[in-house]
Write a structure and sequence with these properties.
The protein is of the alpha+beta class and 392 residues long. It contains 18 helices and 10 strands. A 5-stranded mixed β-sheet has the order 1-2-8-5-3. Strands 4-10-9 form a 3-stranded antiparallel β-sheet. Helix 10 runs antiparallel to helix 11. The protein is globular, with a radius of gyration of 21 Å. It starts with 7 loop residues before the first helix and ends with a strand. Keywords: Heme, Iron, Metal-binding, Monooxygenase, Oxidoreductase. InterPro entries: Cyt_P450, Cyt_P450_B, Cyt_P450_CS, Cyt_P450_sf. Belongs to the cytochrome P450 family. It holds the Pfam family p450. This is Cytochrome P450.
Length: 392
């Protein structure tokens, strides 16, 4: 199977391809790798939701790849983290971080998010094209998650670069090298923080690690790397995709300009319409499973295509329309089940604050290029713009 992320037309608009696959069969076998192995792609909404909540679909990648030859050299802290674990390990690790991302905890961060947003918008050039991604969508989530974790300001550009490299589709060496850079950096930061403990989320995790045996040193490093990367990459894509969607739907954009208080209600529809995570992370069957009428054998990889599921007309009528009045709360952009994105409240808070500020301060914001000239990231799991040239 050719890698669709290398096809510019698919990157521009993957949804016709998804629709064709879904109408042919919502769960289908596709060849993966050179050994004739089959993976199963899930593109239907009902089937995706079912798969994401099925305990027979394991996320324990270490168990799946044990004994298999691989040229990959991913750092263990990136290869084996909370996302790639099952209960009871997953339950224990998730409990340690959930408190930091509750609605109440995020509410405390809102003034900081608003201040950073305004500082970034102050730097926007007037009357000349500039890149929305570089000027807002990338820096805002990086600054927020680094603040939450207690990453020093001077280290943030490195974090941003390594994190971007982790998603470089078709470049295994780049991905592997970035995983080592990030994990080594985080191990050093943890060592430095131990000497002068503060109050950040990372400091609190260090205290949990040193206070009893509920967290190993390896788990501490991997949890920190996961929070850092997952805490900003997807939000960056959410901000870019949502802004582009609104710029391409002037009627919806005008309504929100006139009534910025309506922004929170439309976030779920924006997430559904162009999901920042296109495919859920790796799962495989621990026993034979029947999904959407398709029999999947034991030990088969299952890829849940969230972007396709969120455009399933069976669940969302006229799915290719952006409809601000739609109740899209059932979307799968944050996943579903025990692995649903722990940072969802933070991502929505950042998007709400950023969109409100942008629409209020720059009512004339518009695209500076034709939509078909936009550059999309060559990434497998996430869907996002490499740049978004705009004028204000």
């Amino acid at each position: 199977m050719t890698d669709p992320t290398q096809d510019p037309r698919f990157l521009q608009d993957p949804y016709p391809t998804y629709a064709a696959m879904r109408s042919a069969c919502p769960v289908q076998a596709v060849p993966s790798g050179s050994g004739g192995r089959l993976s199963y792609l899930v593109t239907g909404y009902a089937e995706a939701r079912e798969a994401l909540a099925d305990a027979r679909l394991s996320k324990d990648t270490a168990a799946f790849f044990a004994g298999k030859e691989s040229k990959r050299r991913l750092h263990p802290a990136v290869a084996h983290n909370m996302l790639s674990s099952d209960p009871p390990e997953h339950t224990r690790l998730r409990k340690l971080v959930t408190k930091a991302f509750t609605t109440g905890a995020v509410a405390e961060l809102r003034p900081f998010i608003a201040r950073v947003t305004d500082e970034l918008l102050d730097q926007w050039p007037v009357g000349e094209p500039f890149d929305f991604v570089a000027f807002l969508a990338v820096p805002l989530p990086v600054i927020v998650i680094c603040e939450l974790l207690g990453v020093p300001e001077e280290d943030r550009p490195d974090i941003q670069r390594w994190s971007g490299e982790l998603f470089a589709a078709g470049q295994p060496d780049v991905i592997d090298a970035a995983s080592h850079s990030l994990a080594d950096y985080m191990a050093d930061l943890i060592a430095a923080k131990r000497r002068h403990l503060g109050s950040s989320l990372l400091d609190r995790l260090i205290s949990a690690r040193d206070g009893d045996d509920q967290l190993s040193e390896e788990e501490l490093v991997s949890l920190a790397v996961l929070l850092l990367v997952a805490g900003h990459e997807t939000t960056t894509n959410f901000l870019g995709n949502a802004t582009l969607s609104l710029l391409q739907h002037p009627a919806e954009l005008d309504r929100l300009r006139q009534n910025p208080d309506g922004i929170p209600a439309v976030l779920d529809e924006l997430l559904r319409f162009d999901s920042p995570v296109s495919t859920a992370t790796f799962r495989y069957t621990t026993e034979a499973v029947t999904l959407g009428g398709t029999d999947i054998p034991t030990g088969a990889p299952v890829l849940v295509v969230l972007g396709a599921a969120n455009r399933d007309p069976e669940r969302f009528p006229s799915p290719d329309q952006l409809d601000a009045n739609r109740d899209a709360a059932g979307h799968l952009a944050f996943g579903h089940g025990i692995h649903r994105c722990v940072g969802a409240p933070l991502a929505k808070a950042e998007a709400e604050i950023a969109l409100r500020a942008v629409l209020t301060r720059f009512p004339g914001l518009r695209l500076a290029v034709q939509p078909d000239q936009l550059q999309w990231r060559h990434a497998r799991l996430v869907r996002g713009l490499a740049s978004l040239p705009v004028l204000n």
